[in-house]
Amino acid sequence: MFSGSFVAIVTPMRPDGSIDYDAWSRLIDLHLASGTRGIIVAGTTGESPSVDDGEVAELVSRAKRQIGGRMVLMAGAGQNSTAATVARARAVSALGVDALLVVTPAYNKPTQAGLYLHYAAVAAASAVPVMLYNVPGRTAVDLSPDTVARLATVPRIAAIKEAVADLARIRELLAKAPGIDVLSGDDATARDAVLAGAKGVVSVTANVAPRAMAEMITAALAGDVTRAAAIDATLAALHKDLFVESNPIPVKWALARMGLIGDGIRLPLTPLSSACHARVQAALAQAGIAVGAGV
Fold it and tell me: Which residues are catalytic?
């Protein structure tokens, strides 16, 4: 299940912050037509801290009907406390998703023992496989490869999204936790991670360049170094400049310019500052992505 290009999909919103379900349908159609292996609903790129349980349920329900089994459907369940994460995992896994993505608790800075117990409790509550998500640059806690190796023996823990941009970390995970699938959570190093043995990527760039990301990962999985590098070169500016401000600010601005969503985003996030517009637009142009006046 956990192989290929997965998209950490944005949650489209209207200017008043309400969810735009027509745009949601457009985004899912885009990924169905572009070779995306799966979508992650209400991950951190989907503004999970600002999307409530009822909205997550509606997003999942609509996505499940539209996908009809043609892509893997995952949902974010990570919260700051273990009790809240267990409750979200139990509720979301009952909605018919294929798997959960569970980010490490932010700000709390638990020990490795605490992280092990946290994820073991979440996995016990879930009805579906769990993908761990390590992104210390956002959460201020690093899920160590040794802890991942321990968690690899826990029922239903099946994969990890590793967002440490270090191939040595990828290789260490592959060596120490062979029982779970390793996916890159860093677009800029995803190609090299897959060539080193990772199974795929959970991508922000795939929001705006889904076909190119899918083809690049497919080439890397096949060991076609030349083709993977050629495709990735067109995406290099996106990998960097979609993070010129906090994710998902730039990617939502880009999708709006592409005419796929509106400009809505929820506080405390704000629209992309005007000083960054030209930079993100240039990255889109380098990838061959046409932009217009938006929607």
Answer: 133, 161
What gap in Å lies between CA 79 and CA 219, rounded to an integer?
35
How far CA 259 is from CA of 12, 37, 100, 195, in Å, comes to: 12, 23, 29, 34
Element (H, E) at 7: strand 4-8
CA distance 295 to 47: 21
Strand locations in 9-156, DSSP E?
38-41, 72-76, 99-103, 130-134
Q: What is the pLDDT of residues 9-58, one digit of tens each?
A: 999 999 999 999 999 999 999 999 999 999 999 999 999 999 999 999 99
Residue-wise pLDDT for 232-241, tens only, equals 999 999 999 9
Looking at residue 251, its pLDDT comes to 98
CA–CA distances in Å: residue 59 to residues 23, 41, 43, 205: 11, 7, 12, 21
The secondary structure of 152-221 as a DSSP string is: TTSTTEEEEEE----HHHHHHHHHH-TTSEEEE--HHHHHHHHHTT--EEEESGGGT-HHHHHHHHHHHH
Pairing assessment for the beta strands 38-41 and 130-134 based on DSSP bridges: unpaired
Bridge-partner residues for 6, per DSSP?
38, 202
Does an H or E element contain 279, and which?
A: helix 277-286
> What's the CATH class of domain 4-222?
alpha beta
Output the pLDDT for position 219.
98
Domain positions in the chain: 4-222
pTM summary value: 0.96
